[in-house]
């Protein structure tokens, strides 16, 4: 493994890609600690270390996770990559609904460039909305649940300062998008995924230190062992796939013979990735938003019900709802991202067939059957991974800064494996041994 890293840095073009990626990630992390204009982040940091009760439930925990803790410090990159993720999800969903977007998707590289441009515009719009809402929450004290005096971290809250803060955070989101595209184009790996990976990893040292301070030594050791076992299990499932064999018949085009080859369609067990967990977390934040609007002390029966069962994230009703939503969103996302009928038509067009299955509609039905059987255990796996940290929090009494959360583990393993595979492919092109021997 270490020898492979040495060979990677000895290869000039691969070394330049790796150094460029590290440089961009370093600048990205520096921007995550620079406070926005008008914010005293040192006061926030000192107060958070004292109270340790900031609001880290629902979608805000997800945004704080993807910003590497920058959200609760109101820095230039406070929004992190979350606006881009949300915009990408919305565009993917609209592609199925809006014929114009679906036509662009089928146009190839030119159409994809247009969709990417639309995603950028939507990202900036969402960044304006999110930065405005977070600054309003910080100004009213709701972001920190009234635990930190507003005057200590926002001494000047006039209109010009607030507009400057919104502009700065929105510009920070645009810079993050640019960083991601630079890494994808000139570096190694997927830029946006690596930025998320960096922010998640940045939360690990402080989270592990918090558990070390709050728990006994044997509890800390057990949590670390359980985390390693969980990572190994996630690696195993993320690598698991069903390979559908495909044969292509020989055909004559002009004077040349094409086809006659064999390949396969790789269908992963976790075909949906982490998207269902993000969808479910976003939807379950709505009850907390309703409670924030009406107030926890409201006499409304619906507010009382939501406050009892959907606040805190450890009630069995909340967990069961979260689990069911993840399963439902997993099937929904796989259905809109993988079209068996389209795959079957493309195979038929180029003379491909699955052994024992007739081309056309029988092939589409077979692919749909296999995909459903794969998505069932994949969705159960996602629900289990997402619920395990909640059960651990309730059983051990650990803080919300739990380092082995389901979302963070899925991100770290998925992005790590993808990046290592890309580096390995670069090495194999030069007849070197890769990382996986």
Automatic annotation (TrEMBL):
<keyword id="KW-0472">Membrane</keyword>
<feature type="transmembrane region" description="Helical">
    <location>
        <begin position="118"/>
        <end position="139"/>
    </location>
</feature>
<keyword id="KW-1133">Transmembrane helix</keyword>
<keyword id="KW-0813">Transport</keyword>
<feature type="transmembrane region" description="Helical">
    <location>
        <begin position="315"/>
        <end position="338"/>
    </location>
</feature>
<feature type="transmembrane region" description="Helical">
    <location>
        <begin position="218"/>
        <end position="237"/>
    </location>
</feature>
<keyword id="KW-0812">Transmembrane</keyword>
<dbReference type="Pfam" id="PF00344">
    <property type="entry name" value="SecY"/>
</dbReference>
<feature type="transmembrane region" description="Helical">
    <location>
        <begin position="70"/>
        <end position="97"/>
    </location>
</feature>
<dbReference type="GO" id="GO:0043952">
    <property type="term" value="P:protein transport by the Sec complex"/>
</dbReference>
<dbReference type="InterPro" id="IPR002208">
    <property type="entry name" value="SecY/SEC61-alpha"/>
</dbReference>
<dbReference type="InterPro" id="IPR023201">
    <property type="entry name" value="SecY_dom_sf"/>
</dbReference>
<comment type="similarity">
    <text>Belongs to the SecY/SEC61-alpha family.</text>
</comment>
<dbReference type="GO" id="GO:0005886">
    <property type="term" value="C:plasma membrane"/>
</dbReference>
<protein>
    <recommendedName>
        <fullName>Protein translocase subunit SecY</fullName>
    </recommendedName>
</protein>
<keyword id="KW-1003">Cell membrane</keyword>
<keyword id="KW-0811">Translocation</keyword>
<comment type="function">
    <text>The central subunit of the protein translocation channel SecYEG. Consists of two halves formed by TMs 1-5 and 6-10. These two domains form a lateral gate at the front which open onto the bilayer between TMs 2 and 7, and are clamped together by SecE at the back. The channel is closed by both a pore ring composed of hydrophobic SecY resides and a short helix (helix 2A) on the extracellular side of the membrane which forms a plug. The plug probably moves laterally to allow the channel to open. The ring and the pore may move independently.</text>
</comment>
<feature type="transmembrane region" description="Helical">
    <location>
        <begin position="159"/>
        <end position="180"/>
    </location>
</feature>
<dbReference type="InterPro" id="IPR026593">
    <property type="entry name" value="SecY"/>
</dbReference>
<feature type="transmembrane region" description="Helical">
    <location>
        <begin position="379"/>
        <end position="396"/>
    </location>
</feature>
<feature type="transmembrane region" description="Helical">
    <location>
        <begin position="192"/>
        <end position="212"/>
    </location>
</feature>
<comment type="subunit">
    <text>Component of the Sec protein translocase complex. Heterotrimer consisting of SecY, SecE and SecG subunits. The heterotrimers can form oligomers, although 1 heterotrimer is thought to be able to translocate proteins. Interacts with the ribosome. Interacts with SecDF, and other proteins may be involved. Interacts with SecA.</text>
</comment>
<keyword id="KW-0653">Protein transport</keyword>
<dbReference type="GO" id="GO:0006605">
    <property type="term" value="P:protein targeting"/>
</dbReference>
<dbReference type="GO" id="GO:0065002">
    <property type="term" value="P:intracellular protein transmembrane transport"/>
</dbReference>
<dbReference type="InterPro" id="IPR030659">
    <property type="entry name" value="SecY_CS"/>
</dbReference>
């Amino acid at each position: 493994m270490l020898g492979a890293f040495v060979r990677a840095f000895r290869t000039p073009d691969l070394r330049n890609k790796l150094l460029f990626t590290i440089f961009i990630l370093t600048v990205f992390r520096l921007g995550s600690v620079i406070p926005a204009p008008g914010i005293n982040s040192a006061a926030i940091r000192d107060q958070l270390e004292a109270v340790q009760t900031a609001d880290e439930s629902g979608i805000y925990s997800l945004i704080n996770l993807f910003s590497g803790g920058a959200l609760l410090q109101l820095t230039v990159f406070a929004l992190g990559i979350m606006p881009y993720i949300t915009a990408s999800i919305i565009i993917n969903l609209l592609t199925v609904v809006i014929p114009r977007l679906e036509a662009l998707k089928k146009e190839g590289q030119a159409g994809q460039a247009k969709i990417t441009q639309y995603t950028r515009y939507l990202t900036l719009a969402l960044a304006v909305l999110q930065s405005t809402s977070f600054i309003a929450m910080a100004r009213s004290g709701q972001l920190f649940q009234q635990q930190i005096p507003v005057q200590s971290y926002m001494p000047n809250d006039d209109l010009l300062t607030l507009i400057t803060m919104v502009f700065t955070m929105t510009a920070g989101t645009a810079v993050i998008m640019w960083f991601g595209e630079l890494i994808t184009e000139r570096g190694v790996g997927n830029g946006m995924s690596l930025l998320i990976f960096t922010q998640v990893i940045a939360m690990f040292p402080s989270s592990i230190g918090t558990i070390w301070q709050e728990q006994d030594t044997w509890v800390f050791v057990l949590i670390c062992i359980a985390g390693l076992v969980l990572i190994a299990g996630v690696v195993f499932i993320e690598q698991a796939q069903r390979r559908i064999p495909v044969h292509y018949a020989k055909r004559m085009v002009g004077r040349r013979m094409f086809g006659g080859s064999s390949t396969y369609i790789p269908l992963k067990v976790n075909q949906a990735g982490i998207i269902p967990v993000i969808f479910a977390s976003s939807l379950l934040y709505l009850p907390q938003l309703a409670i924030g609007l009406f107030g926890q002390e409201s006499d409304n029966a619906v507010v009382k019900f939501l406050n009892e069962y959907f606040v805190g994230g450890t009630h069995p009703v909340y967990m069961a709802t979260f689990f069911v939503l993840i399963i439902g969103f997993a099937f929904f996302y796989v259905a809109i991202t993988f079209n068996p009928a389209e795959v079957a038509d493309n195979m038929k067009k180029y003379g491909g067939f699955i052994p024992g299955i007739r081309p056309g509609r029988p092939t589409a039905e077979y692919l749909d059957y296999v995909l459903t059987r794969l998505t069932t255990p994949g969705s159960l796996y996602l629900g289990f991974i997402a619920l395990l940290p909640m059960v651990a929090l309730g059983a051990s009494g650990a803080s919300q800064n739990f380092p082995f959360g389901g979302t963070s583990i899925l991100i770290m393993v998925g992005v790590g494996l993808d990046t290592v595979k890309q580096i390995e492919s670069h090495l194999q092109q030069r007849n070197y041994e890769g990382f996986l021997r």
